[in-house]
Design goal:
Blueprint: H1 11-17, E1 28-37, E2 40-48, E3 66-72, E4 80-87, E5 94-96, E6 102-106, E7 109-118, E8 123-130, E9 138-139, E10 153-156, E11 162-166, E12 205-208, E13 221-222, E14 225-226, E15 244-251, E16 254-260, E17 267-272, E18 279-286, E19 297-301, E20 304-311, E21 323-329
Parallel strand pairs: 14-18
Antiparallel strand pairs: 1-2, 2-3, 3-4, 5-7, 6-7, 7-8, 8-9, 10-11, 11-12, 12-13, 15-16, 16-17, 17-18, 19-20, 20-21
């Protein structure tokens, strides 16, 4: 995951052109999962730090250790940092790399879902509980049974059911689960065990959550993402295929599954008629940002829809020191979503 060439970027000019500014400037934050609880926006981001790790395609330099919760009275209001919500040292099974989290609310309890590497070097997904949306959160002693890879996103449907979507390539290890068991061979290669060219692209996974929100209620299954002909997207289709950063939202009865294409840096979406899919590719929501990663969430506030995302403009292009942002998005009458250029005009 090499650094993008940034020598040509005038960051003062970039900040002036940007459609939005960092919500938080006293620390670096990324991967914002935003929800509206009781009429207020709560954002659950990663907390980026510079831990001195070497840059590599496994993401070792993303060495995050804890989570803070950010709240906003509205998308135009100041962001408030509520302090430490959970630290890796509090999680018995987790050793390092507290990557992109998400949260859910049910029956007066708040659930923080997070990926982390265990002491065996394998990413799992954990859950921690609080009586408050801002924490602190108390983690379960073990990771969620049957969980693997990264980037959990939990969607609440209108019937009160909850579903988790997860998975990420390369350092996120999704390709190492192709056989249903973890493949430990070639541990230093991010591309080992990935499909090639004309093979179908790797797919994210999902599962309905149990009533207590602590386990999967079913065996995780692949989320099918199809092209306009109804075929699975191929591994070589880097501009459209899934890489990481699952999210689901529902608009006028249609389910929108959105995600990052990773090495091509797009945020794309696909639509379907069920939380289980299949989903048909619909287009891009967000063009590439400064920095290698792109990760987002989408939520509704008072009838308008907002995209929460990040870039590395505040750190002047340092890929693992990112800042969360927000921009309004538009669903067209035909259900498609307008593409946002983070530093220019919508298309």
């Amino acid at each position: 995951m090499p650094e993008d060439p940034i020598d040509h970027i005038d960051f003062d000019e970039l900040r002036e052109k940007a459609i939005s500014q960092p919500l938080v400037k006293h620390m670096y934050t990324a991967d914002p999962s935003a929800h509206v609880f009781h009429g207020k926006i709560y954002i659950y981001p990663s907390h980026d730090i510079d831990a001195g790790e070497a840059f590599d395609d496994l993401g070792s330099h993303f060495a995050m250790e804890d989570y803070h919760v950010i709240s906003m009275e509205s998308p135009l209001a100041d962001a408030v940092d509520h302090g430490l919500a959970l630290h890796v040292d509090h999680v018995p099974w987790a050793q390092k790399q507290m990557w992109a989290p998400d949260a859910a609310h049910r029956n007066g309890k708040y659930y923080l879902y997070f990926p982390a590497k265990g002491y065996d070097g394998i990413f799992r997904i954990g859950v921690a509980i609080s009586d408050s949306p801002t924490g602190p959160f108390v983690p379960e002693k073990e990771a969620i049974k049957g969980s693997f890879s990264i980037d959990p996103a939990v969607f609440e449907d209108e019937d009160g059911s909850y579903y988790m979507y997860f998975g990420g390539l390369w350092g996120g290890q999704l390709q190492r689960w192709r056989t249903g068991r973890f493949i430990a061979d070639e541990p230093d290669s991010p591309l080992a065990h990935c499909p090639v060219r004309k093979e179908p692209a790797l797919l994210p996974f999902m599962a309905k959550m149990s009533e207590d929100m602590l386990e999967f209620a079913e065996e995780p299954r692949a989320v099918r993402i199809l092209d306009e002909k109804g075929d699975l997207l191929l591994a070589e289709d880097n501009d459209r295929r899934f890489f990481e950063a699952s999210w689901l939202h529902k608009y006028k009865g249609t389910y929108y599954f959105s995600y990052s294409t990773g090495d091509t840096h797009n945020i794309c979406y696909a639509t379907g008629e069920s939380p289980y899919g299949p989903f048909t590719y619909g287009g891009r929501i967000l063009n590439p940002v400064v920095g290698w990663t792109s990760h987002h969430s989408i939520c509704e506030f008072e009838g308008n829809w907002y995209l929460f995302y990040h870039d590395s403009s505040l750190s002047k292009g340092v890929t693992h020191l990112r800042s969360i942002k927000v921009a309004e998005i538009t669903h067209r009458p035909d259900g498609s979503i307008e593409t946002i250029d983070p530093y220019g005009n919508r298309t």
